[in-house]
Amino acid sequence: MSRGCETVRNSFRLQKRGLPCKQRHRRRTKEKSMTKQELIKHVAKQAEVTTRQAEAVINSLTAAIRDAVGAGGELQIADLGKFGSVERAAKTGRNPKTGETLQIPARRAVRFSPAKRLKDAAAG
Length: 124
Hints:
The chain is an alpha+beta fold. It has helices at residues 8-17, 21-31, 36-47, 51-70, 116-123; strands at 75-77, 81-88, 91-94, 101-104, 107-114. Strands 1-2-5 form a three-stranded antiparallel beta sheet. The protein has a two-stranded antiparallel ribbon with strand order 3-4. Helix 3 packs across helix 4 (51-70). The longest helix is centred in the middle third of the chain and has 20 residues, at 51-70. The protein is elongated, with a radius of gyration of 22 Å. The mean pLDDT is 84.
């Protein structure tokens, strides 16, 4: 018996829906993501402002987050979370293809800590 959607039971269920296996999985993941334009429209509708005004607000927010994190600081938004950066130490790595040892330099990485309210919303 094969694994995944190719099993007899799953293929019958997919035929009822009229979708091949790959399309069904692809559709499930796409429904959960939101583009920037969709976010702008959603904010404009919720705040009862024009889409240009909503776009300006979202662009300002992303710029503020980028500036705070880029400067090494933190930006905390209640009910959303905390944006910040963390220093990653230099370490020794290995090229998986050749097995050669190489040095990975130290760098600063972005960190996001979700607020409790956001975690609760994601949990359902």
